[in-house]
Amino acid sequence: MGELTYLQAISDGLRCEMRADPRVLCMGEDVGVFGGAFKVTDGFIEEFGPDRVMDTPLAESGIVGTAVGAAVVGLRPVCEMQFADFISCAFDQLVNVAGKMHYRQGLAVPITVRLPSGGGFSGGPFHSQNPEAWFMHAPGIKVVAPSTAHDAKGLLISAIRDPNPVCFLEHKYLYRRIRGEVPEPGYTTPLSARVAREGEDLVVIAYGAMVHAALEATQDIEGARIEVLDLRSLVPLDEAAILESVARCSKVVVVDEANATCAAGAQVAALIAEHAFEDLDGPVVRVASPDVPIPFSPTLEQAVLPGAERIGEACRELLAY
Amino acid sequence: MNPPEASAQATVDVTMPQMGVSVAEGTVVQWRKRVGEWVQADETICEISTDKIDTEVPAPASGRVLEILVEVEQTVPVGTVLARLATDPGEGKGAPPPEGAAPGEPAPAVTPHPARHYSPVVQRIAAEHGIDLSRVVGTGRDGRVRKQDVLAAVDRPPAVDRPPAIDRPPAIDRPLHSESPYRPETREPGPGQPAAPPPTSNGAARPAVAEPDRPERLSRMRRSIGEHMLRSLRTAAHCTTIVEADFSSIERARRALGLSYLPLVARCTIDALREFPVMNATLEGDTLTRHGDVNLGVAVSLGDEGLIVPVVHRAQELSAEGLGRAIAELGRRARAGELSPDDVRGGTFTITNPGAFGAIAATPIISQPQIAILDLEAVVKRPVVISDESGQDAIAIRPMANLCLSWDHRALDGALAAQFLSAIKRRLEGWDGG
Amino acid sequence: MATYIAEVRSQFPDAPSEFLTREDRIGLWRAMLLMRGIEQRAMTLYRQGKVPGSFYDGFGQEAVSAGAAFAMGPHDRLCVLHRDLAAHLIRGVAPTRIFGQYMGRAGGITRGRDGNVHFGDYRTGCVGMVSMLPDMMLVATGMAMAFRMRKERRCALTWCGDGSTSRGDWHEAMNWAGVQRLPVIFVLENNQYAYSTPLDKQFAVDPIKRAATYGFPGISIDGNDVEAVFEATRQARERALEGGGPTLIEATTMRMHGHAAHDDMRYVPVELIEQWRRRDPIELQERRLAEIDVDVAAVRAAVEVEIEAGVREALEMPMPDPATATEGVFAEGEAQELGDGAAPWSGFSTPLTALPADASAPAPSPVDDQETHRWAS
Asked: Is residue A32 part of a domain?
C-alpha cells in the first residue's frame, strides 16, 4: 500500500479485519453515515452496511455494555469512543463487566475499545486526556498505544483478534502528522516494546506521541548516543525490554504525556527501581504533565504538555550527573 | 515617493488556521485581496480547503496587503504565514505571548550527590573488575564517578595521574608520587608545565596541516598570576638550591598511612622550619618578620585557569594525616571555587608539588612576601650508591626526588638554604612516624 | 416506613396459559421448590459459617425467575440476577455446584472467584452478574443486538430490580433496545424494596409506564403467579422473534427476607409481609397442582433428596488452591461463546415423560433435535 498516515493505517487495519472476519463490527457515535468524527470509518458503511458500522445512541455505557453482550454471543465489536475522555462514562461496564468476566466466569469478552487520546491542539480538559493508566490498573483489560502508522494497523488487528477486552489508544496528534510504510495485507503487531533508536548512554522510555518528541529531543545531545524505547503495549508491559535497555544504558528518562501521578511511567519507574537497581548510574527521571486538567489556551497547554524541549533538558541533566 | 521603510511599519501575519484537532495542513483555494489592496479586520482575505472542511479566512487586522507568500493550489502546514498586512503604526496585534516556563512542572529531579557516592552500577562494575574507585577520576557532577568513568578505567592502561596499586611495584618510567596539587581534575596541566599526553594513547597523532595563528587575550586570572610572578621576580633576589632525598622511608610510611607524599614532606618541612626559623619569615622592604605559626601555603592547580595557593594555618599543630586532610580539603575547595579570602592570606612558607608530569627539577618563584618556596619534584627510581657499616659500597635502587628550594638572597645565604634543605632531607630519610 | 406499595394491578392473563402441559406445570413448581430448598439449606450453612461473605436469596420471589426462564429456548441467552436462582436450575446447573459456589469451593461454578449468586455457567447460556445493577441490562441488549444483526430467531432476557431503574444504565438499555427494536425481554422484579429504600424514594413514575416512552410495551403482572410470569414471557418472546422488539415485564412481588442474610428488614411493615405471605408463589402453584391430582408429596420428597445429595457432595469439595489465585485474568486462544442451555418447556421439545414413581430416580432427560443439557441433575 505504501505510505499511509497514522489515521489511514487505523482505517486500513479496521477495514482489513472487517473484510477478513464477518464477526467484526464497529460501533460508536457518528461512525456510520458521517464516517466518524475523525473520519476513521469514512466509506465503511457503504462497504459493510449499517449493522456492521453502527451509529449508536449517545450512550458510552451502552456502547461498551452492549458490546460485551454481542461479544459473548460470538461477535467481535470494535467500540469507538469519540474522544478517549468519554470512556469515563463507560468505566463501569469496561472495568467491572468486561474486565472481570473471564476471571470470574471463564467467559471471554473479545471487545476492542478505540480511544482517540492526547492533546496539543487546544482541545481543552475534556478532549485531550490520556486515560490509559486507569485501565492499566483494572485487571483483565489489555492496553496498547501505537506510535507509528505501521504499529497502528498491526496493533489494532492484534487487539481485535485478542479474546480479551483491549483499550486501543490512538493519539489524535499523530493522526495526520505522521506517516509510514504500511503493508497492504492484514498483519498483527506483537504486544511488546520496540527500540525506536538504539543507544547506550541513556534511554528515554515513552509511548504514543511522546515517542516522536523523544526522538526529536535526543537527536543530537552533546554527542551522546541516546536510546528511545517505544513501549507500544502498556498491558502487558514488556518488562524484559525495559530492563534490557536499562542494563545497557544505566540512565533512564521515562516520559508520559499523561498527568504524572500514577501514570504508566510511574509503573515503569517502579519496575526499574525494583529490578534494575544495580544497573542504575543515576536516579530514574520522569517527565510528565503536571497534575492539572489539560488547559485550552495554547500558551497554557504548551506549558503543561511535555515536549522535545523538556525531554532534552532532562536528558542533558541526567547525562551530566 | 520612497517606499516606506519596513522597519518603521507594523506588520501582521495571516496564517493557515487549524480547522480541527487533527488537521495538519491546508490548501489556499482563492485570494480575495491582491497585494496593495486594503482589507478590513474580519473581512475575508482568502479561502482555504482542508481535510475536514473548506472555509474562509478572515483578516486578523485592518491593513494593506504587503505580500502574498502562498499561492493558490499550494498546500502548507498549519501555522504557515500566508500573507502579511501593513497596519497603521500604533495599530496591529499585541505583543506575542511571553514564553513562559511550565508552571508547577515537575522538574527533572537530578540531585547532585557528594563526590564520593558511587551508584549501584559503578560499584558493580568496579567489583567485577577489581577497580579501586578512590583512584578513578569522576567526570560527573561535582566530580561524581559516572559509569563511563569506571568503564574507561577498565578499558585503558593505568593513567599517568593514577598511582599504582598498593602491592604492585611501580614501573620505572613513571613517577611514584600522587595527589600532587597540580594533578588536574580536568585534562589541563598546571602553568609552565608541558601538556600531559592523553592517557589512552602513546603520543597523539600530529595534524597533517598546521593550524592558523589565533591571537587571544589572556584571561584575567592568568594576567593576575603573571603580575604577581613578575613582581616577585623584580622584588626578590631569587636563587635556587637543590638537594636530592631518598624517599624509601617516606614510601613505606605513605603506604602504611594511606597518604600521598605531600603531607609527609610538609610535616618534615614544618619541623625543619622550626629548626631554621628564618625560613618561616616574610620580608617587606627592609623588615624581616619571623613567624611563630607555620602557615603553610600549598599550590593548587586550577587547570587551564591557573593556580592558587590556599594556606593551612598553624600547620605545625597537624600530624601528617591531619595535613593530608587539610591539604585535600583546601584543594577541593580551591577547585570548586569555594575558597574564602582568609584561605589565601597569611602564608609564611609555600610548598609546590608539580612532579606529576615527570620533571625532576625546577626553579619556582617565591610567593611574596615570603622568602622561600619548596618545590617537590618527581619521585623516580634511580640506582644509588649506599654504604653499609663496614664501609662497603653497593648499588641500590631507591626512590629519589629533588627538593628544589628557591630562596630570597636578601634574607639569607646559600649555606643556610642548603642546611635547611638538608634538615628536610634528614627527616624524610629518617621518617619513623614522627 | 413506606406508604406506597405496588399492588398487583393486572389480571393478566385472564385465563390459564394454554401452552402449559401438566408436566410443564409440575416442572415450574419443581423449579421453585428446588430454589427455595437450596436457599434455605444454604442459609443454614451460612449460619454455620460454611458460607463466607454475604448470602442473598429470593425467598417469596421464586415465581419470577422460574416462570420467565421456563419460557426461554435453548439458543436464547440470559443474564441472571441474585434472586433468580430458579433460572440457573432450569438451564441445567446441578444443585451441588451451586452449594459449592456459595461455599467458595473449587467445584463451585466460579471456582471461588466470585461469591453467592454472582455466577453464570456460560455453557448453559447464562452470563454471571456484576454487583453494579443493572449493568446486565446492557449486556442482554447487546446479545439481542447480535441476534438481530445475524437475523437469528433468538431472544435475550435479563431481570432487574426496582432500585436499578434509577441508574443510567437502565435508561441506556431501555433506550437502546427501543431505538434498535431488539429481541430482548426485561423482567423488572418489583419486590418493593431496594435494600431499605422503598419505591416512593426510588422513582416518581412507575417504571412500567415508562416503557412506552422508550418505544415498546410494558406489562405489569402478578409476580407470584408462576404461570402468569411464564405466559407473559412467552408472549414477549414471540413478539421479539417476530421482530416486534423489546418488552418490559413488571412482575410485582415482595422480598420476604432481608436484602441479605445480614439484614433483618425491620424497615418493612409487618402487615405487608403478612399480606404477601398469604400469596406465597409456591403455595399458590401447589394448590393448582393438587387440584389436578399431582402427587405433590412425592415431588417434594424427590426435591429434598436431590438437595441433600447436592449438599453432601459440595461439602466434600476442596477449597481452591491459593496458587491459582492469579490465574485466568486473561483469556488465551479462541474465545468461547456462551453455550446452549436446557429448555424443558414442552413447547421446545418432545414432552417429558411422567415423573417416575420412584422419587429417588433422576428425571429422564428431555429428548429433542436440539442439543440440551440434562435438566435437574
From this structure: yes
Closest Cα in chain A, distance from residue B140 (Å): 5
Assess whether A127 carries a catalytic annotation.
Answer: yes
Closest CA relative to residue B363, chosen from B217, B255, B239: B239
Percent helix, percent strand, percent coil in chain A, to nearest 5: 40, 20, 40
Q: Do both B302 and B397 map to the same domain? A: yes
Amino acid letter for position A263? A
| Residue numbers of C between 323 and 342 with CB closer than 8 Å to A | 328-338
Cβ(C231)–Cβ(C223) below 8 Å = no
Quick one: B347 and B407 in the same domain? Answer: yes
Cell match 429434598: residue? C304
CATH number, domain of A32, equals 3.40.50.970
Residue C188 CB neighbour total at 10 angstroms: 27
Count of domains forming chain C: 1
Number of domains making up chain A? 2
Instruction: Quote the strand ranges of B182-247, DSSP E.
Output: 238-246
Chains C, B in contact, 3 or more Cβ pairs below 8 Å: no
Q: Which residue has the higher pLDDT, B206 or B428?
A: B428
Pick from B203-207, C194-198, C203-207: least confident: B203-207
What is residue C1's three-state secondary structure?
coil
CB contact at 8 A, C179 and C141: no
Q: What whole-number distance in Å separates Cα of residue B266 and Cα of residue B326?
A: 11
How far apart are the C-alpha atoms of C39 and C102, rounded to whole Å? 10
Mean pLDDT, residues C290-317: 96
B105 vs A contacts (CB less than 8 Å): 290, 303-304, 310
CATH number of domain containing C90: 3.40.50.970
B422 and B290 together in one domain: yes
Nearest to C159 by CA among C181, C179, C139: C139
**Cβ separation A104–C113 shorter than 8 A:** yes
Is residue B203 domain-resident? Answer: no
Q: Give the total number of structural domains in chain B.
A: 3
Q: Which three cell numbers stand for residue B224?
A: 593576575
C-alpha cell at A144: 496498547
Q: What gap in Å lies between CA B29 and CA B48, rounded to an integer?
A: 5
Q: How far is A308 from chain B (nearest CA, A)?
A: 13
Mean pLDDT of A229-235: 98
A2-41 per-position pLDDT tens digit: 899 999 999 999 999 999 999 999 999 999 999 999 999 9
